[in-house]
Amino acid sequence: MSDSLKNLLKIGALGASMAFVVGCASTADDDEMAVMLEDAQAKAEEALAVANEARDTALDAEGTANAAQYQANRNSTRIDELNEKIDRMFERSMTK
């Protein structure tokens, strides 16, 4: 089959499916559409609430990680100071 014929068949199938969807949508009852819209809105609001909760949890985790990083840096500095002090004490003891 030639490419142009394949493309024509694809376009025809797409057009037929779109016509079916539009036809079904246009015959749906207004009450059904309102219910579907309300359901979609409720699901969107629920998804937003979950996303906000996830963001809050991530922010809390970031705060905890920042505090831990600060503490680790502080301990590293103290360890370096302690090592220097031990080295000085060792050098003093070796000179005596």
Ordered list of secondary-structure elements with their pairings:
Layout (H helix, E strand, L loop, with lengths): L2 H25 L2 H66 L1
Molecular structure report:
There is one protein chain. This protein is mainly alpha-helical and 96 residues long. The chain has a domain at 29-95. The protein is 95% helix and 0% strand. It has helices spanning 3-27, 30-95.
Query: Per DSSP, what share of the residues sits in E-state strands of 2 or more residues?
Result: under 5%
Instruction: Give the biggest beta sheet.
Output: none
Helices and strands, in order, run as HH
Query: What is the terminal-to-terminal distance?
Result: 99 Å
**Based on helices, strands and strand pairing, what is the structural class?**
mainly alpha
Percent helix, as a range, is over 70%
The backbone outline, from C-alpha atoms, is elongated
The radius of gyration is 34 Å
Counted beta strands: 0
Summary keywords:
mainly alpha
Write a short abstract of this structure:
This protein has two helices and no strands. The chain is mostly helical and 96 residues long. The chain has a domain at 29-95.
